[in-house]
Amino acid sequence: MRIHFLLALAFVMMLTPSPAYAYYGGSIDLISDVHSVCPCDIISSDEMVLELTNYGTGSDTFFISMEIPEGWSGFIVPETTLASGESVYLDPAWITPPCGTEPGVYKIRFIAESAMSGKIADEEMELDIMRCHDVQLSGETSVGTCKGKEVTSSVTVKNIGKGKETFILSTDSEWASVYPHQVTIDPWGEASVQVRMKPADGFIGNKDITLTAVSSSTYADDDMKIQLTANNCYQFSASVVPTEDVICMGDSGEYYIQIDNKGTKSDTYMIVTPAWARADKSTVTVAAGSRGNVRVTAIPPETGDLILSVFVSSDTQSTEAVTVESIVKSVDCRDGVVMIMPPEASICIGEGTEYSVRIENNGNVPTTYTLDATVGSSLSREKLILGPGEVQNVILTIDAAEKAGTFPVSVDAYVDGVPVDADASTLIVRTCYDAGLIVRPNNDDACIGDMLSFDVIVKNNGEYDDTYELLYPGGEADFDLEPGEINELDIVIDVTDEWNDVTEIPFVLTSSNGIRAEKVIVQNVTPPGTCYSVDVSLLDEEDSEITTVIGYGSPVGVKISNTGNRKSVFFLSVDGPEWAYVSDASVELEPGEEKEVYLYISPTYDVKEGSYTMSLLAESDSSFSATDIKAKVLSDFESPEEEAPELEGGLTGMFISNPLPLEITLISMMAFFTVLLVVLRFIIFR
User: Fold this and answer.
1) 3-state SS string over 247-306?
2) CA gap 90, 63 in Å, rounded
3) Which of 24, 121, 191, 610 could form a disulfide with 56 if both were Cys (CB 3.0 to 4.6 A apart)?
4) CA 348 → CA 395, 485, 511, 577, distances in Å?
5) How far is CA 54 from CA 30, 78, 86, 111, 549, in A?
């Protein structure tokens, strides 16, 4: 017995640690390799795997910290307690280098301090910060243009980083702009932007313009210089020959405009003359270093010294322009006088009138006069031959005026194409009769059978009373209005079967004084099947064939659905035997609304056995749907044989349990050995 006791005592001593040999300490190990990351990226404990091991002889608490570069952010679990020989991965832990961190290798130190002994274990990690974000600009570095002219250069923006980024583009000069000013590019992708450059007016020479691309979220940036060269492409001089001339009134003189292109490019020049002169061409193109000529024919409008002023401008460079002048001495060889009576007349729109035109030859030679009147009028004679001092009258007729306002009425007298005199009168055209028509529809899409409503406003914009007639599909309205009076009408029009999907609805207003106004309203008409539609379906599809017994009732659930887009009332009925009826005579449903009703099938005692078919109908003025039910009528119930329920489990009906968990097994064994020791001790020391 004592031998058993000594063996038990030795076993207990082996399990009990001795304080005389207690030791405390630990080690921290970096399981992962050296890491490479981008600025702004987070390196977590999933990547920098840190393992702390307590190699002391007893439990110990370790205080954990890390040393990171200044400005960085990070976190590591501050402390942990481990049993002797126990290891743990330090989690959570993370480090984030700032977005502006320069590329390079940085050292990170992890420290674990024993609470029992104060001993420190550390581990160092090298973190390689890479240049993960970068951008590259490329394109023309030299662009030429003409003075004051805009030029566009295409620049490629390439993302040579490893992440998708947005870059903001700008220039350092008010002469340049970039479009778009912001681009988002995938890694190693590229985008094209346009740099628009325009030198200041008058600038000739070179100017450097810097284009910059800066990431909106990282440190990536790049710039490139574009040299803008502004050339004096368009420069010219002009002169007129002769610079002075004498022309008899009624005759014409010829002048030549000489244009010398002193620029570096071919250019087109525009020629603008006064009204009494005419150039043989309005534009002339002259090659660089060459001369061009334009012939100008002048017919002086009056006697005296006149200035023939011709404006010459570059069609390409609008700022390049000159005016050349020649003195025209006009001598009065022939003359005439034109006078219109009355000096002012007034009529209504649609009316006409007449003027008397007096022509007098106050020259010293017989003269043939050609008369020209205002557009919209006519002369009783357009050519007269008058001796010196002779006078004749012609009639000037004004056609029917088309619009109100004050208009000049003039007659010009020419001698051999040269104007000698003119006179003008004033014609006042009044709005005696006029009307305004406004039609405002109060409808959206319409359906056949709808009543469309319109607000129609008619205003008498004339100066006198008038009688009006308004015609519209299916009706008309007659009324009188005083000047300025308004009539507001509520017009209702039926939508008939003849209307198409898109129908034009005309409103025509006429008056007794010839006024006509029309407004056409375009109305969308929806097909009846879209406006009004119903669907009848069984709640249970198996109810399409049922079995019932004479003298008993069988309800069948039916769903009525409004599948149109208008609220409708649907009338329900049964097409079949009298002993089948529906629970509701009608249902009112909003668009998309559904309602459940019941079809009761109750064969009376006088009904014979057999199969019957009946239909539940749902219909409105514009829609219809039905569902069929077949009923088998019996004189008594027929019960089908009941099937034996299936048994669950194995062939024997026994249940097989799972094996005990490992934890329960270990606990049972420990309890067994404890009881065994107690029994042994009782036997030895009894």
Assistant:
1) EEECECEEEEEEEEECCCCCEEEEEECCCCEEECCCEEEECCCCEEEEEEEECCCCCEEE
2) 11
3) 24
4) 20, 20, 15, 80
5) 15, 16, 6, 14, 86
Alpha-carbon distance 84 to 435, whole Å?
A: 106
Give the per-residue pLDDT at 2: 45
Structure tokens at 489: 């009408």
Residue/partner pairs of 322-328 with CB below 8 Å, 24 or more apart:
322/236, 322/237, 322/238, 324/238, 324/239, 324/240, 324/257, 325/240, 325/243, 326/240, 326/242, 326/243, 326/244, 326/245, 326/255, 327/243, 327/244, 327/245, 328/245, 328/247, 328/253, 328/298, 328/300
Q: Which tokens sit at 281?
A: 């061409």
**Res 673: pLDDT:** 64
Which residue has tokens 């069609």?
315
The tokens for 412 are 């010009």
Is residue 459 within 8 Å of residue 435, measured between CB atoms?
yes
CA 356 remoteness from chain centre: 64
From residue 55, alpha-carbon distances to 60, 85, 112, 124 in Å are: 10, 5, 13, 20
Per the CB < 8 A criterion, the answer to whether 223 and 210 are in contact is yes
State how far the alpha carbon of 506 is from the alpha carbons of 470, 488, 522, in Å. Answer: 10, 17, 9
Q: 3-state DSSP call for residue 538?
A: strand
Backbone φ, ψ for residue 341 (5° rounding): -130, 140
Residues 145, 152: contact at Cβ < 8 Å? no
- Count of Cβ atoms closer than 10 Å to residue 395 Cβ: 12
Structure tokens at 448: 């056949």
Q: How far apart are CA 250 and CA 414, in angstroms?
A: 8
- Could you tell me how far CA 351 lies from the centroid of its own chain? 52
Which of 119, 76, 116 lies closest to 96, judged by CA? 76
pLDDT, residue 560, reads 93
Q: Which residues contact 503 (CB under 8 A, 6 or more apart)?
A: 522, 523, 525
Query: What is the chain's percent helix, strand, coil content, to nearest 5?
Result: 5, 55, 40
20 C-beta neighbours (distance < 10 Å), count: 5
Match 């109305």 to its residue by tokens.
523
SS (HEC) of 293-306: EEEEEECCCCCEEE
Element (H, E) at 8: helix 2-15
User: Shortest CA distance to 185 belongs to which of 130, 135, 132?
Assistant: 135
- What is the predicted pLDDT for the residue at 438? 94
pLDDT for residue 182 = 94
550, 543, 544: which is closest to 603 by C-alpha? 550
Cβ neighbours for 225, distance < 8 A, ≥ 6 positions apart: 141, 208, 209, 210, 211
Classify strands 236-241 and 353-360 as parallel, antiparallel or unpaired. unpaired
In whole angstroms, what is the distance from residue 389 CA to residue 47 CA? 117
Query: How many angstroms separate the Cα of 540 from the Cα of each of 169, 556, 579, 612, 617?
Result: 66, 8, 21, 19, 17
Asked whether 196 and 152 are in contact (CB, 8 A), the reply is yes
Answer for the pair 551, 605: CB distance below 8 angstroms, yes or no.
Answer: yes
CA dihedral 241, 243, 249, 253 (to 10 degrees): 0
Question: Do the bridges between strand 190-197 and strand 221-231 make them parallel or antiparallel, or are there none, so unpaired?
Answer: unpaired
Q: Which residues contact 513 (CB under 8 A, 6 or more apart)?
A: 432, 433, 462, 464, 466
What is residue 437's three-state secondary structure?
strand
Phi then psi for residue 3, to 5 deg, are -60, -40
Whole-number Cα distances in Å, 507 to 441, 493, 513, 517:
12, 11, 18, 8
